[in-house]
Design goal:
It is built from five helices and seven strands. By secondary structure, the chain is an alpha+beta fold. It has a seven-stranded antiparallel β-sheet with strand order 2-1-5-6-7-4-3, sandwiched between helices. A hairpin with a 2-residue loop joins strand 3 (45-47) and strand 4 (50-55). Helix 3 crosses helix 4 (125-135). The structure holds flavin-adenine dinucleotide (FAD).
Length: 166
């Protein structure tokens, strides 16, 4: 279910959300845990309207995903505290969708390479592949198929953008 943003003037465009997803280096994955919740920070890469994550083959989040594949993932782009105004000039994106574990070997390799390239952009693909062929095997790749996303920024940032005409 998509909830409309109350303060819609602070809403980011989809292209702005995507730019943040490409640039940020981590976010927090929110999962349902029985009657409660579990929020866990993770690195990720954004590609083809999906987010990809790598993780160990067992653990708390994997157990929960098997029961409840619907998740959200929040990325904070900016959190600039302004003490004189008792506020923060923030910008963030929340992604919603279903998560699954990649089974296909080729898809896994592509996602893992994309992750490695994001976090080590100066390394050649040869370097990355050599590293992954040695160390990449024991991990799983999770895919979050995005159903929708929303982005929001502090009204002060939005006003500044309007002033600058962007
Ligand atoms: C910026 C950042 C990036 C990360 N990137 C990755 C990544 O790409 N892949 C990856 O697998 N992991 C990553 N981690 C570690 C990740 O947060 C988890 O610790 C890890 O994935 C294990 O999760 P799990 O649910 O299997 O925990 P388990 O090992 O099953 O942990 C059990 C319990 O330990 C506690 N716990 C687990 N993780 C944390 C945590 N981070 N902080 C506080 N308590 C915790 C919780 O209470 C949890 O219920 C990252 C962490 C940070 C901060």
């Amino acid at each position: 279910m998509v909830h409309e943003m109350r303060r819609w003037k602070q809403r980011l465009e989809q292209t702005e959300c995507e730019a943040i997803l490409r640039q940020a280096t981590s976010g927090v994955l929110a999962l349902i845990d029985g009657e409660g919740t579990y929020a866990v920070p993770l690195s990720y890469v954004y590609q083809d309207h999906c987010l990809y994550f790598h993780c160990a083959k067992s653990g708390h989040k994997l157990e929960l995903l098997q029961e409840h594949p619907s998740v959200s993932f929040c990325v904070i782009d900016q959190d600039h505290v302004v003490p004189d105004e008792y506020t923060t000039y923030f910008r963030s994106v929340i992604v919603f969708g279903e998560m699954d574990v990649l089974k296909d070997k080729q898809e896994k390799e592509l996602a893992l390479s994309a992750l490695a390239h994001k976090y080590a952009p100066k390394h050649s693909m040869d370097q990355i592949h050599a590293y992954l062929s040695k160390h990449g095997e024991p991990c799983l790749i999770l895919r979050l198929r995005i159903s929708h996303m929303s982005g929001k920024e502090a009204k002060e940032l939005r006003e500044k953008q309007v002033e600058q005409g962007s």
